[in-house]
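_Backbone structure tokens_
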Amino acid sequence: MTNSSTEGAIRVERPSKTLRELALEKVRDAIFSGHFRPGDRLVERDLCMQLGVSRTIVREVLRHLESEGLVSNPANKGPIVARLDLDEARQIYEIRGALEGMAARLCAEKRDPAIVAELEKALADIRHAYDDNDMAQVLSHTTRFYETLFTRIDRHVAWSVVKLMMVRINHLRSMTIKTERRSVEGPAQMQRIVDAIRAGDGVAAERAAAEHVQRAASIAEAVLREQVASAG
């Protein structure tokens, strides 16, 4: 007769993430951090050695990143880190401005202190991440801030639309958050969104959200133009 407690003690737990998922996160983070820059070649053999995984996994990772728009595969060149398209970036910020403005206004109109508390916590974590110069955590906590903004007013469809663009949003955001004074200006702009929501002022909340996105769009456009000039 098998002892059930013994079975439980020796059971092999399935890892929460597969090797492919871990490799995908590593390469994506390397692109976001600037370790791999726009136009850099992504050589399968080198990635296998750097990641310690098989060529099959590397190829799957590169295909996935291509579907996300982070990698391009020009003929006769092989995979490279994709260059962000200025027109596409403008469209992403236009969509963000419309949806985030709406969400901020509805949060304000709901007048729920719990929403304010969650947003304040996410914003405090963003500031701490900036203080620690941990840009990966800045991205993570910023995503949580906006997830709260949408899901606490039951706008899950709108949040799903945003999530479809999240990799591209974070690619752009990974550039803007590292620019001069963004560690101060960004949280200050987000604080104005939270303050308007706390006051129940939907118009001010929508305006603050839109202004935050517009400022990020201006910074992103400047960075992208500089990249194009450097590449030329």
Summary: Residues 96 and 213 are 7 Å apart (CA to CA). The chain has a mean pLDDT of 91.
